[in-house]
Each structure stands twice: as C-alpha cells, then as structure tokens.
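User: what does the whole thing look like in 3D?
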Amino acid sequence: MSLSDIVGILVTTVILGSIYGLVAIGMTLIYGTLRILDMSQGSMVMVGSFIGWGILVVAGWNPIIAIVLAFVATFGLGTLTQLVSVQPLMKRMNSIDFEMVTFITTFAVAMILSNVALEVLGPQQRNVTPVISGGINVYHGVNLPYQSLTMAIVSVVMMAGLGIFLARTRWGMAIRAVAQDLDAARLMGVPVSKLYPLTMGLASALAGVAGVFLGGLYFAYPSAGDLPLLEALIVVIFGGLGSLPGTVYAAYAIGLIQAIAEVIVGETWSLPILYGVILLVLIFRPYGLLGKPSEARL
Amino acid sequence: MSERPSKFATAFPDMTAGRWAISGVLIVIAALVPVVVSNEYAMTVLVTTLILLVLNISWNFVLGIAGVWNFGQLAIYALGGYGAGILMLHTSLSPWLALLAGGVVGAVAAILLAFPTLRLYGIYTSLLTFAFAEVIQYVILNDGSGLTGGSFGLPIVRGLFGTASIASANRSYYWTVLAVVVLATLAVAAVSRSSLGIALRGLRDAPAYAAARGVSPLKFRLIAFALSGFLAGIAGALYVSFNQSIDPGVMGLTPMSIDVTMLVIGGMGTITGPIIGTALLAIVQTALVSHPGAELTILGVFLLVVVVFVPGGIVGLVSRYRKRISTWVAEDDSGGDPAENDDDVQPEGSTEQSVA
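Assistant: Here's the predicted 3D structure for the full assembly of 654 residues, as structure tokens:
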C-alpha cells in the first residue's frame, strides 16, 4: 500500500464519515428522545436531493438557497411526519410493541413519500449540479473535489451546531432532558408534545441538507434515499442507538472501514465486508459501541 | 365432521365442527377456481398471490407468533428460490426434490441468520436482519461469477411442470401452491397451539420470565427461524419454478413494504391474518396495476391508518367486536351487572386473540 493509497483512504474516510454522520445523527437524536427508529430519514435525503435539483438545475439559483430551502422544507416534512405517524401512538409509548409499531408507521411514511415522488417526478435519475465544481490535488493522484470538501465541512459544522444547540440552548436542553428522563422533564414544565415534532423536524432537516450534497454526488431519483438509509442504519447500530458521540465515532469508523475495503477488495465487496464487521461488533457488544441496553435506559 | 380423530381435535382446540366445515368449504371453493377461470392472466395473478401467501405465512410465524423482528425474510425466500433454481438449471434432479432443497436452503440460511440475532433485542434485531437482506441482494446483483446471473436473474428454469401447456401448467401450479398453503396454515396453527408455540409466545411477551422458567431462547429461536425459513425457502422455490426465473427484484424495500402491509392489515401473529391481508391487498394491487406509484402510496396510507387506528389488523378488529358482543350477551344473561371490564386493548396477537 503506497502513501497515495493511505492519503486516499484518509480523504475518503473524512468525506464518507461526514455524510454518514449527518444522516445518522438525526436517527440517533430521534431514537434518544422518542425511542423510535425513524425509517423516513432516507426519504428526507431524497426530498433534499430533489430540492437541490429543482433549485440548482431547474431554477438555476444559488446553492445556498437550495441548502436553506432543503433545511426548511424537510424540517416541515419531518414535523408533519411526526404529527401523522408518531403522535397518535404516543399514548402507547410504554407498551412492548411501541418501537415496532412506530418502525412500521415511519416506514409507511417513507413508502408514501418515495412513491409520490415516483408518481409526480418519474423514475428517471436527475443530474444535480455540484454545489461547487472543481477540486484540489491533495497528493499524487488523490483528487479532492470541492463538492466533497464543502460537504464534509458543512456536515461537521452542522454536527457541531447540533452539539452546541443541545448543550447550550433552552430547546436543546429540553430535548436532552426528555431523552434522560421523560417524567422529570414533564414535571419541570418541558412542553413534550411540542418538543417531539421539533426534534423530528430537526433530524429530518439534517438529512435533507445531506440530500442536497448527495444529489450532487449521485443523482436525484425517487429511491435515492434507500442506500443512505441503509448506511445510516449500519452507523447507528454500530455506534449504539441513542448515543450521539457513539454515532459520530461510528460514522467515521464506518467511513474508514469502507475506504480501506474499497482500496483492498474493490467497491463491490466493501458493503458485505462492512456488514461482516458490524456482525462481529454486535456479537460482542449487542448494543453497539456506546449504546446502553434499553432496560438500562428506562 | 364430528367423527374426526381426537388427536386432531387436541391439536386445534379452537376449531369447532362449524369452523372445520367453513374452512373445508372455503378450500373446496378455492380449489374449484381454476375450473371456472379461463383467463390465463388471471390464473398467473392467482398463483403469484398464493406463492406470496406462503411467504407471508412463514414471515407471520417468525414475526408475529415468535415475535422476532426478522426483516430478512425476503432474502431467505430469495436464497431458497435461487437454490432451487440453480439445482433445476444445472442438475437433472427431480424438480420436486429441488423444491424441497429450496426449503432446506431457506432453513439453513435462516438458522445462520438466527445466530447473530440471539443476543439482540427488539429494534436491533430488525436492523441487523434488514441489513442482512440488503447485503444478500447487493451480493447477488454484483455477482460476477455468472451463477446467479446478476441483475438479469437466472435464465429459463424448467420448473415443476416443464413440458405441459401454459393453461394446464397454470392449473397444476395453482393446485400445488394451494395445497402448500393449506398444509402451511395447518402446520402453523398446530405449532402455535403446541407447547412449542406456547414457549415462543412466552419468549415474545416476557423474555426474561420465560427464560427463567427454563424456556431456552437459543433452542426456540433456532426452531422458529428454521421452520419459517423452510417455508420461505419452499415459497421461493415455487416462485422460481412458476416464473421459470428469479431475479434480485424479489427482494428490496418495495416487495418488503407490500408484504409487511399485508401482514399488518390482516393481523400479525394470527393464523387467518396473513390470508386475509394477502387476499385484500392482492385485490387492491390488481386494481391499481397500471399506476405503480399510486399503488404503493395507497398501500402506505392503508398501513399508516391500520397501525394507528386498528391495532391488531382486521382479524384483531373482528375478534374484538365478537368478544364485545359475547360479553354483552353474557352480561344480559347474568342480569346486567358487568362482571369485569373487558375493554383493555391487548398487544397484537396475544394469547387470547392469536387464533381467530
């Protein structure tokens, strides 16, 4: 393995890890506060890609408008998803099948979103103009497109922003309070019924922004969210559901494993190898790297 | 029907003579359908739906009755199909043996999948098994060796009734698959009422308590996976045989969405739920066949509405109403004083409602 391979692996790790982190951190945030696994996150990525396509290609406007609009639109969509598919079930929160039932309802939302997109926009893959074109040569033969670099920076900034939001602001602290102890948070006057839609909107907005960039890397099409969803699922299992630091570590660890696998065995087998690694992690740590058993969480 | 052997009666305690009679009449009607239907397209749809029903019965067993959140069932189904298809393609083995071999492949794949899920709980199981299914699909799609044919699937497989004309083959398939459906339903019903079924439901509803009472989670989860994997493998083998081909399109999110919707709408964890759900959604699908996008959107809305407003699916709804009426009648008989409040909503398919 030459030095340029190693540089290439590091660059890929940072890029992949940042995308995975941005999509997966929303799932973790939702699981931590609401104890549901939101299967509609992939569709939010798809919606983000289509907004990117609409603003950048059809309207020809500034990428910043695309990002802001994607944030706002998927925030609204995520809030709506919560109100439609989760809020009516909240009274069953302590029943044994709550996780399963919400898994299915959010899955139903994902089904509706991607098939409405299929019906309205058609199955063809749309090219999304990269937010920024060109790239820099990092090392002999290792090219870093500005698009990927911007994406990594935006992801890191958004993850850091989320961290500051959760640590410092009133609403952020309310989210953490609910995640730690629902009843105590209620007693302290946290408006839980407003907080849940907000949390899911926020998480969906992160996925929507990721979608604008992913659309530039791949395409915008109705099932564009499937692969990001699978990757986010792998990341959140690996990191431990509900653990934000665990998710960020896991995103970069998964990025590293995938980058190494791509160099050594090629892209075709990198996903199966990733799966093998996850399998091993789960056999030895059934709740992921930093996850806690749900009995301990309750 | 009253002269049935007593062994049979103990295996199906919920089945009164009247219920046996109704089931028998329904089976006879189902068996007579090909005599009446002469349209070959309709026959193809019917056989495809019945094959899907076999798969749904197998999935319902592991998901609803055993309560293991296995979302990798479609991969097991596909593996059974590919196993049988490759045997039919490359060996001169009797296709009926290949069909059984498909079931064995499914059972083995399911047992292998069961091991890593043993220590997992709830949602982690569904994540792991879902990822397993995606990876199996990915590997088959990107298979360069030519064994599976990649995204094009297996070339023409001779199937069970290779030389027969289309019309007679369709009918033979219909009766074969119907027989498998009847056998599978009887088997699942018998198992879910046996001590094995009680152990599985115990592990589902109170894992720690069941384990403490000596019900081995390892043993029973392996048995549940093996049984449902065998059935799913048979379903896959029937699929490859009937369609004379199989491709990775049988797996993935879209078919999974449809199957999950069928199970949830019918009533997960019940015996008749998969049958009702599959039949109902097959009708919806056939009606919307020219609008693939609208079809799944409507299924998604159905799924959402049923989960939110009708927990337990159609079967759960029916048995809840029947229970309410019988309580009502009983109250009337005993003089109006309500003995107990029977309004509590039970978790999906708990012991009281699991056979409808």
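In plain terms: Chain B has a mean pLDDT of 81. The first helix of chain B runs from residue 6 to 11.
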